[in-house]
Amino acid sequence: MRTMTSRLIVENYKAYGASPVPTPWGEVYSGLQMGVLDGQVNCPFFIEEQHIDDVQNYLTFSYCNPFLMTLIVNPQFFDALPADIQKIVYETVEELLPFSFQWQIEFNEKRLKKMQERKSSLKVVYLNQEEVDVFKELAKPMREVYYEIARKRRKNISGDTGKRHRGCELRENKVNRSCLSGLRECRQPYSLNPKNERHLQEIKILSCENRCA
Question: What is the pTM (predicted TM-score) of this model?
């Protein structure tokens, strides 16, 4: 199974019983074509755009990962805006969340239909709740892996020991990372993981949301 070069993702797929192979995206198509890779994970729209369905016969909706999109702004710029303008930005972001969530559902459905029309032999599989629950149980130990990685990276960035964060809001070095979702909650841990202090000072996440299951 092709994965990104992330320890968390690699360990996650190992827990599922797969053999993860971290692979640069530029090598994925040929890897699938030559049988070096058995599968990859992406949203329908991206699979269709990259013509991955040309080299795959099955498309399984496993609902194992959220697809996160972010609205990011320089904090010096944003904090310099008048309070009423900041309020409008936050309100607009929240107002558009339900619309954007519905839009991505329809967008992915259209791209899935396009793939099926292009390749009638493509077999689409939807896991039922019982099957999804099995994967959820297998993934539970990954929480500790996530906390371990987060603690180490937080320590490297801010010099402190780091603590577990169980919510939508993280505050580090005066940077407010607030996460909004259409369901008003974060169902998956989210981390930007900036590499150094300078990057941390230059970013502010206004929102992140689940775009596809």
Answer: 0.67
